[in-house]
Specification:
The chain has 146 residues and is mainly β. It contains one helix and eleven strands. The chain is 5% helix and 38% strand. A hairpin with a 7-residue loop joins strand 2 and strand 3.
Length: 146
Amino acid sequence: MKIKLEIKRLPHGANLPFPSYASEGAAGMDVVSAEDVILQPMQRYPVKTGFAVAIPNGYEIQVRARSGLALKHGIACPNAPGTIDSDYRGEVKILLINLGSEAFEIKRGDRIAQLILASVTQAVFCEVTDLDDTQRGHNGFGSTGI
């Protein structure tokens, strides 16, 4: 299934590619940086992309790390997956963190993350006095094994 998204190029996004799929079966669109940044070890930074997007109601865009950057350099999205809500109209920024031991240079035009369009189901809470019993019950963190 394909859904059209309206995208607005911002002035500092001139001559940069819009997010795109690297292969026919790719789930995520590669997104590039619109600025030069040097991320020091353990530094977090919201990297500009040079575009804004109108996401249809009932959808979100999830922001995920690129596996190669994570494996080779420790570059990750600290709140992965990040969420861009359908009513947000500002510049898309990619929050990155350098978990590596060396500074990492991002150049304008470098692929920095993946964007995934996903449908959203909103919950409606209904307060009750008791919840149904399950085998797991109140057992939480680590209760089902390592």
